[in-house]
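Structure ticket #2291
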Amino acid sequence: MHSCDLRRGSGRHVAGCTGGKGGVALKRIGTASRVLEAKFGGYTVGVLVQCNYGRRSQLRIAGVPVGREIPDHAVRDEDIGSIIVVVATDAPLIPTQLKRVARRVSLGLGRVGSFASDGSGDIFIAFSTANPGVKRGTGLHQLSMLPNQKLNTIFLATVQATEEAVVNAMVAAKTMKGINDFEVIGLPHDRLREVLKKYNRLEK
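Resolution: structure written out below.
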């Protein structure tokens, strides 16, 4: 449980190979967020991913085919893992709108190379912290909600934050051994920088 400690008061968390069966060396935690411009409400969209899937050859970061440039130490040939993604926002959204937000997660995953293979188990959920207390009591309640026409910025923020959260998980994760000395090699930062420079994503 220590690795899952959110350290209340500091707002910090632990990323990489922590939490969620970290002992098997495959589960990787990553987060990212976006804050909308004031003219769009100034709402925050945060994403947490626990990823244990994907095919190395398909990995892309910033549009760069990192998986093909760094092909060694692949864990497996087939995509048979799973991923859990949680989207949190303070935007006033109702359940049907939150379902639409959750569906946008797959677009963010597609940016990093996922194609939702037959063997992958995908769980996406979204919730809003707005309208607290609407479940209290049995009487009538009033709540606030964004009109559907105002959801595009929320959708875009969800896609972008999902993509970045996966990259965060990959970069933060270190080489780790699990049961029966099963070892997963962390993404080498020096080689990643060189690949990104090669494709002009970083300055030389």
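Closing remark: The longest strand covers residues 44-52.
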